[in-house]
Amino acid sequence: MQFFFYEIVARVVAAYLCFDTYRTLRRGLTDGTFVPFEPDGVNWILDSFRDRAALAVHRDATPTRFWVSIGLEVLLLLACLYVAIFGWSQTGA
């Protein structure tokens, strides 16, 4: 029963993240600006006090960082799509 619950929760969370990532990608590609995710906890806290416009990566000003951020977001989208379709399978259990 516990495995079934984990499987349902993983698929629901992955579906939500897939939808949210798609919206972020669509907005970033149409506007030409993208605010990348900062995995470092300290920078994440410090950046929460800054203006979001100052954190944005612009396609024309910094194209390499923009396309690397978009590429990482596409990988996240594909990973979430995989989990939403195939589930979080634990083989050998």
Q: How many beta-strand segments?
A: 2
Going across the major beta sheet, what is the strand order? 1-2
Structural class estimated from helices and strands: mainly alpha
Spans of 5+ residues with little confidence (pLDDT < 50)? none
Beta-sheet strand percentage?
Answer: under 5%
The SSE string, one letter per element, is HEHHEH
Overall form: elongated
Radius of gyration: 16 Å
Distance between the ends: 13 Å
Helix content: 55-70%
Helix segment count?
Answer: 4
Average pLDDT, rounded to a whole number, is 82
Major β-sheet annotation: 2 strands, antiparallel
Brief characterization of the structure:
The protein is mainly alpha-helical and 93 residues long. It has helices at residues 2-31, 41-47, 52-55, 63-86; strands at residues 33-34, 57-58.
3D architecture notes:
This protein has 93 residues and is mainly alpha-helical. It is 70% helix and 4% strand. It contains four helices and two strands. It has helices spanning 2-31, 41-47, 52-55, 63-86; strands at residues 33-34, 57-58. The protein starts with a helix and ends in a 7-residue tail after the last helix.
